[in-house]
Amino acid sequence: MKRLFTLFAMLCAMALTTGCAVNRATASLTPGTDLTQVKTAYVVKQPKDTHGLDNLIAANLEKRGYTVTRGPELATPYPADVSFTYVDKWMWDITMYLLELTINVRDPKTGFPMATGNSLHTSLTRKSPPEMVDEVLDNIFKAPKK
């Protein structure tokens, strides 16, 4: 009976700890999208972003050779080949960390999504915000064309 209880306790402990090590990194392109033609980009700053993710995205794009401008959401077409929007989700686990980041590449005239990338890292697999931005953009630019 004591062995059965010990085995049950170990299984419960393993089940409770495995849920913390989740990560996901995906990207997809809208059919007909060709990002190799993109030279300029506009990064839309989210009004509630207090972590400067727009700056990280812009710096990463500049490192990749793009001419980047950034600013608030505009009512008129963006002065670039594409615009980038993002949604960030932060979580508290002893310290604040970026749990999930989704970046959308949009047509600057219509706002139609041309590509989407997402990265999710829970507490045990967490990455820094620059690493998350790099992972999402890498996946977007390497996504297979449809």
TrEMBL record:
Residues 1-21 form the signal peptide. This is DUF4136 domain-containing protein. The keyword Signal applies. Keywords: Signal.
